[in-house]
Amino acid sequence: NNVFQMLEFRTQEHLKPFFKNLPDKEKVEWVCTDMWRPFKRSFSQYLPNARLVIDKFHVVAMASEALETVRKKYQATLERTDRIKVKKSIRWLTLKRPQNLSQQEIEALAVVRQVIPELAVAYDVKEAFYRIYDDPDKASAMRAFEAWENSLPDELEGFRSVAKTVHN
Fold first, then answer.
1. CA-wise closest residue to 136 among 144, 146, 124, 127
2. Per residue in 16-60, pLDDT tens?
3. Local structure of 156: helix, strand or coil
4. Looking at CB atoms within 10 Å, which of 50, 76, 85, 120 has the fewest?
5. How, if at all, do strands 30-33 and 51-54 pair?
């Protein structure tokens, strides 16, 4: 498992010739990229044994966006001055991983859990999704994903989009 090449451009006009002229094309097993749909069209005809893998960063970013949607929904119900305060403090708090929270932030998150339980649920769902990537092997991660998907509350539609992306 080696990184063979990182290309500067990702346009079809640059990618297709690269993949077409790649030596030992049949040995390429994986191509990792973001979710840019045309990418697969760039290599699929030239790399017969390669499978597309979406970069972890882009998938977990979707989970963070789903959490942000819940925060913004709550924030929209507040008065303007409260909205500004919430945006500045709660946004960064909920995007952080628990192990990176300071003691003060841990206490602030406890207050969020009491005052905005819907946001706390979304934070926990985001964190449960992130932890799937910490699993030691594929089988364990697949079980964790299935459990995560089956536990999604109906009102968290953004996380259902994350699950659909993972399936795709």
1. 144
2. 898 999 899 899 888 888 777 777 788 888 999 998 888 888 889
3. coil
4. 76
5. parallel
